[in-house]
Design brief:
about 15% strand; binds beta-D-glucopyranose
Length: about 375
């Protein structure tokens, strides 16, 4: 409760700061845009460009909404473009924004290493680059990084499984992860492993679907290569169809003794719903506990209906406001506020990190409705 209050206060301050600093920076006439994204502002010049991975996941539509509101309210000319799962489209988007004269690029890469070339081009054009939510790796051309505490996301998911698993030992644990091209997938898994590994080593959980994870079950800390091997087996590619077929294949291959009451590490809400649907229809699975993240509306409904156990609320209002506040500092020639650094294999990228909130049936109303993120009319059966 206190944490949430602080966050809202922080957001209000960031928004006020942005509004105060940016008054007069641009005109506020909305303009339609042929590129599939959206453009706001009165002149053809765009000051701040935003590139997001895909329109096909509700998560990124939330970010789009926050950016458009915050940037336009602040009087910035801005444009939000989507890469639709393609690094080539992402590169074209960045080039389009450079040609429109952006001074700051806020970009969430489709593929962390592949985005290096695009941001190098932006950098050469004198644009300041802020990586948003996902780190861009293997390049010096990322100036700043704005992120949620992704290690904490994974640790919260793992801890939820531990706290809500059936009593006893030998409980089957099914592991799923995000896309190997997304640095976050590694960080989420690392966080989850940090709490799950002792419970695997002491026999509370038995890994049901990854021989690579089984091989490493005595190791508290894994190298990136080791996590990569596990992700190679359990990746969903952040795609709910891949998640569904992987869960089906796992349950087909698994013997009855690894069914019954099970726990499932699902990396995000979209994949969690697919995986939960598959487990719900297997007659040998008697109960399941399953994680998620993003607080997507459909998953909030699943939680209310008892079909998904938890989600992690990552308040996109805070993340968008933080990156816009950073953009304001950069446009003013000031050093943005950061509170940590992330190693991207080429440099320690100065970063601003935001905390996360675990959401279950018990606090869904308080966390998501009372905070103004969603409207209670979006859901049925909410008490
Ligand atoms: C984000 C998650 C999102 C996932 C799939 C990750 O990088 O942090 O919030 O669910 O990508 O788009």
């Amino acid at each position: 409760m206190r944490k949430l209050g602080k966050k809202i206060l922080g957001l209000a301050l960031a928004a006020t700061m942005v509004m105060g600093v940016a008054t007069g920076c641009g005109k506020k006439n909305d303009k339609s845009d042929a590129s599939g994204g959206s453009s706001k502002g009165g002149s053809s010049e765009v000051q701040v460009g935003v590139v997001l991975p895909t329109k096909d996941e509700p998560r990124w539509l939330q970010d789009q909404k926050q950016f458009e509101t915050i940037l336009s309210d602040a009087g910035f000319t801005n444009q939000v473009l989507f890469s639709q799962g393609s690094s080539a489209t992402e590169r074209t988007n960045v080039e389009t924004l450079i040609s429109k004269g952006i001074k700051v690029l806020i970009i969430c890469p489709q593929d962390g290493p592949a985005a290096a070339a695009a941001v190098e081009e932006a950098k050469q054009a004198g644009v300041k680059v802020i990586a948003y939510d996902r780190l861009i790796t293997g390049t010096e051309s990322v100036d700043y990084y704005v992120t949620f505490d992704s290690f904490a996301v994974g640790a919260a998911q793992g801890q939820y499984l531990i706290d809500n698993a059936p009593a006893g030992s030998g409980i089957p644990l099914y592991l799923y992860a995000g896309a190997a091209t997304d640095n976050n997938a590694f960080v989420f898994f690392e966080g989850a492993w940090s709490v799950l590994q002792p419970k695997i080593a002491d026999g509370t959980f038995v890994i049901a679907n990854s021989s690579e994870a089984e091989k490493l079950s005595d190791k508290a800390e894994l190298s990136r290569d080791e996590i990569g091997k596990i992700i190679g087996q359990i990746t969903t590619d952040w795609d709910f169809n891949v998640a569904k077929s992987k869960a089906e294949a796992n349950l087909t291959a698994t013997k009855k003794n690894l069914k019954g009451d099970v726990v499932i590490l699902a990396p995000n809400d979209g994949t969690a719903r697919s995986i939960a649907d598959v487990f719900a229809t297997d007659k040998d699975v008697t109960s399941y506990v399953i994680t998620g993240q993003d607080s997507e509306k459909a998953s909030v409904q699943y939680i209310i209906d008892g079909k998904q156990s938890m989600t992690v609320f990552k308040d996109t209002r805070t993340l968008a406001a933080d990156s816009v506040a950073m953009a304001v500092s950069l446009l003013e020639g000031k050093e943005p506020v950061t509170d940590t650094t992330y190693d991207n294999n080429k440099k320690e990228v100065p970063a601003k990190q935001t905390s996360i909130v675990v959401v279950t049936k018990d606090n869904v109303k308080q966390a998501l409705i009372d905070s103004g993120y969603y409207d209670s009319s979006d859901f049925s059966g909410l008490e």
